[in-house]
Each structure stands twice: as structure tokens, then as C-alpha cells.
């Protein structure tokens, strides 16, 4: 693979529209951490660097989203805010507070879902996993824009075999087939993975259309094309370097041998119920899920990089022989992150080395890489950290 000296960065201003005022986390009612300022910080760095070229997304409809997420869930994401306001509930506090739990596990899901869908509070409790996923008037626009950003980047990668950066917001790796959680609504990495597996570049061309900032409102989940012509799935390696375990991504591909999911993450920590090394996949996917839980207090720059180098050069990862690599690029591993962070990750150069390892490791060398933005909440540092990962990745090409 020959990579140009620049990386194209796909971005949409509509991703800034999702802007809840507050959130309740660990008993603290505070300003919403996953704010638009995160993306603005990274974009400001991208705009100043000659290594990046900013491009606008195209539109690929809801179909690729529905290849991953349940129809009823996507319909919920599209309509819940209007339903909430129409029910006379407060416009500035569209939040769930009662969540489905094991007390209803004796019931079939179809019964639980029917009960939940009789009220806005029930819908919230059924489709949300925690209180970090609030809604405002234009939340769906941002969700949709973020998905179109990653689809546009995936399309470009499929056509050119060049690596890309999808500057996505909201992030996605905590979202499962039918649940939003951890600031995530649509799992952008999963959507890109299935898009690259299910669609040929010609299929992608056939459904591509100009992106318009109001087109998502007109896109009905009941009116979707079926244009895929591929029959053999590409082997895709997903490397998740976000501080938090990508429980949504793991759940989506847990029984799938065409996707190898690797996550390095702080443990124990959010999402609390997943992330152990014992979670290896099931059925056809057994052995295709690799979790590397790391101690948040004792993991240093050297320890983190050693674990990353080890797993990327493991025989089983090399033998998977990935055709495409997708990186869930969380930047909340930095020690100053307000809601995450490894206490010993204090050297900015570590992020250059991460990028270099992604480019040079035996399991990823000579493969196109799709970098997809996930978490990271040290606003003033995000642009630099993102830039360092990508600069480290490009460093071989610039020698």
C-alpha cells in the first residue's frame, strides 16, 4: 500500500449540533463532558497542519446504519426528542432515569419492548444504558452526520486503498445493536466495518448522494435500498485504543470470525460489566475477541506501548491476515483526562509511537487504516494528541 503524504479528514459541522447542557455522572450534576468543543479542538489542529486535508462527507442513507442497528432502535433515535416534547416533558432534560434490568429477564424481549414503548420514559429505559446519552433538538442530526462521516471515509478508503481519518462525534464504541450508552448512539466503527464488508466500491457509488444538513429528517427507516453485491466478507481488524472498553463493538462482533476485535483499556472502570481477558468471543467468533485490561493507576507509557506492540505482533493476530484495519481512536488515555486516563501516560510522544506501531506492526503493515474518533475529553490537548497519532502513522512515509 502506498499512502499519500497527507491524510484526508472527513468532518461535518452538523456533528456539533448535539449539545446537552448537563449530565449526571458518579452522583455529580455537571456540564456535559462530550461537548462540541472536543471536535473543535481537533479540527483547529487539522486546519493548521499541512499533513491533513479536510473534506466534507457524502450521504449514504440510513441503510448502512440499519445493517448494524435494529430498525426499532434507529426509529427511537430519530423520534424520541419530538415524542418527549410532545408528551409535555422538559425540552432541556430529555434523559432516561429508569433502565431495563434483570428483574424483567423472565419475560420475552418482545413483551418488554412492547411495555417500554407505551411511554417516553419506558423507551428511554429500554434503549439507553445509562444517563450519559441525553437528547436535544438536533441530536439525531449529529448522530446521522457522524455516521455519514465514517461511511464517506470508508468509501474513500475502499476506492483508493489509502488511509483515512473520520472525525466523528458523537463517538460510537459503546453503542450496541439496540442500546445507546457512554455518549454513543450509533456504533460508527461497526457501521464502517459492515459497509466495507457488504458493499463493493460500485455499490457505494450507487447509493452515494450529496450531503445536506436536513436530509436525515426525510430518510425513513422503512424506505431503504438493498444494493449489496458482495458475498465474501473482508477480514477486518478493529483496534480500540480508547481508555474505555468498547463493549458495544465487542457485542456486535462477538460471534463473527471475519472481524478481530482488540481492545486495550482501563480496568476496572466504565462500562463496568465487560472488558476482562476471559471474554474471547463465542461460536464462530471464539478467539476473535482480545481484551487487554490495564490498571489505570500503574500503567505507564512504557507498559502501554509494550502491550500494544505485543498484541499487534502476536502470531494469532498476524495469522488473521487483516485486509483492512479500523482504529477506534480514543484519546482519553492521557493522564489529565477529566473522566478517564492512565495515571502513568504522561509523555505526548507515546501517541506518536502508537501511530508508528499501527503502521509498522506485522499484523497491520501495508494495510489501509481507517482512524475513527472515539473519546477524549482533555479539550485543550485533543488536537495535539490526535495529530501525534496520525503523525506517527505517517512517519514511515516521510522518511
Class per helix and strand makeup: alpha/beta
Question: Helical proportion?
Answer: 25-40%
The largest β sheet comes out as: 8 strands, parallel
Helical segment count? 14
Span between termini: 16 Å
Mean pLDDT: 94
Order of helices and strands: EEEHEEHHHHHEHHEHEHEEHHEHEH
Unreliable stretches: 220-225
Task: Please compute the radius of gyration using only Cα atoms.
Answer: 20 Å
The tally of beta strands, per DSSP, is 12
Characterize the quaternary organization of these chains: single chain
Portion in strands: 5-15%
User: What is the spatial order of strands in the main beta sheet?
Assistant: 4-1-6-12-11-8-9-10
Shape: globular
Provide an overview of this structure.
This protein is an alpha/beta fold. The chain is built from 14 helices and 12 strands. The longest helix is centred in the middle third of the chain and has 22 residues. A hairpin with a 2-residue loop joins β2 and β3. It is globular, with a radius of gyration of 20 Å. The strands form 3 sheets. An 8-stranded parallel β-sheet has the order 4-1-6-12-11-8-9-10, with helices on both faces. A two-stranded antiparallel sheet has the order 2-3. A two-stranded antiparallel ribbon has the order 5-7. The two termini are 16 Å apart.
Amino acid at each position: 500500500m502506498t499512502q499519500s503524504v497527507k491524510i484526508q479528514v472527513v468532518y461535518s459541522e452538523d456533528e456539533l449540533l448535539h449539545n446537552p447542557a448537563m449530565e449526571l455522572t458518579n452522583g455529580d450534576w455537571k456540564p456535559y463532558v462530550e461537548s462540541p468543543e472536543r471536535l473543535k479542538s481537533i479540527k483547529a489542529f487539522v486546519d493548521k497542519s499541512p499533513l491533513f486535508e479536510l473534506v466534507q462527507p457524502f450521504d449514504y442513507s440510513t441503510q448502512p446504519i440499519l445493517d448494524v442497528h435494529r430498525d426499532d432502535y434507529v426509529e427511537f433515535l430519530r423520534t424520541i426528542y419530538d415524542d418527549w416534547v410532545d408528551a409535555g416533558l422538559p425540552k432541556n432534560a430529555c434523559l432516561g432515569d429508569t433502565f431495563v434490568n434483570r428483574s424483567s429477564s423472565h419475560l420475552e424481549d418482545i413483551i418488554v419492548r412492547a411495555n417500554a414503548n407505551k411511554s417516553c420514559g419506558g423507551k428511554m429505559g429500554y434503549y439507553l444504558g445509562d444517563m450519559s446519552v441525553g437528547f436535544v433538538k438536533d441530536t439525531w442530526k449529529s448522530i446521522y452526520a457522524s455516521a455519514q462521516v465514517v461511511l464517506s471515509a470508508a468509501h474513500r478508503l475502499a476506492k483508493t486503498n489509502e488511509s483515512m481519518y473520520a472525525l466523528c462525534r458523537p463517538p460510537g464504541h459503546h453503542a450496541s445493536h439496540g442500546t445507546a450508552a457512554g455518549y454513543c448512539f450509533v456504533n460508527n466503527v461497526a457501521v464502517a466495518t459492515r459497509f466495507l464488508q457488504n458493499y463493493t466500491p460500485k455499490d457505494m457509488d450507487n447509493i452515494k448522494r450529496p450531503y445536506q444538513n436536513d436530509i436525515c429528517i426525510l430518510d425513513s427507516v422503512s424506505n431503504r435500498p438493498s444494493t449489496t453485491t458482495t458475498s465474501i466478507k473482508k477480514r477486518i481488524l478493529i483496534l480500540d485504543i480508547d481508555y474505555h472498553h468498547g463493549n458495544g463493538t465487542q457485542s456486535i462482533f462477538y460471534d463473527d470470525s471475519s472481524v478481530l476485535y482488540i481492545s486495550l483499556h482501563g480496568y476496572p472502570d466504565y462500562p463496568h460489566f465487560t472488558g476482562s481477558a476471559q471474554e474471547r468471543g463465542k461460536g464462530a467468533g471464539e478467539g476473535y475477541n482480545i481484551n487487554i485490561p490495564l490498571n489505570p493507576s500503574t500503567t505507564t507509557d512504557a507498559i502501554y506501548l509494550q502491550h500494544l506492540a505485543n498484541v499487534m505482533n502476536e502470531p494469532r493476530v498476524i495469522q488473521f491476515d487483516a485486509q483492512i484495519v479500523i482504529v477506534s481512536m480514543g484519546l482519553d488515555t492521557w493522564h489529565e483526562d477529566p473522566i478517564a486516563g492512565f495515571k502513568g501516560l504522561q509523555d505526548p510522544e507515546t501517541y506518536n509511537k502508537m501511530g508508528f506501531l499501527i503502521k509498522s506492526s506485522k499484523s497491520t503493515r501495508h494495510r489501509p487504516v481507517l482512524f475513527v474518533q472515539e473519546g477524549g475529553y482533555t479539550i485543550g490537548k485533543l488536537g495535539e494528541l490526535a495529530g501525534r497519532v496520525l503523525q506517527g502513522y505517517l512517519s514511515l512515509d516521510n522518511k
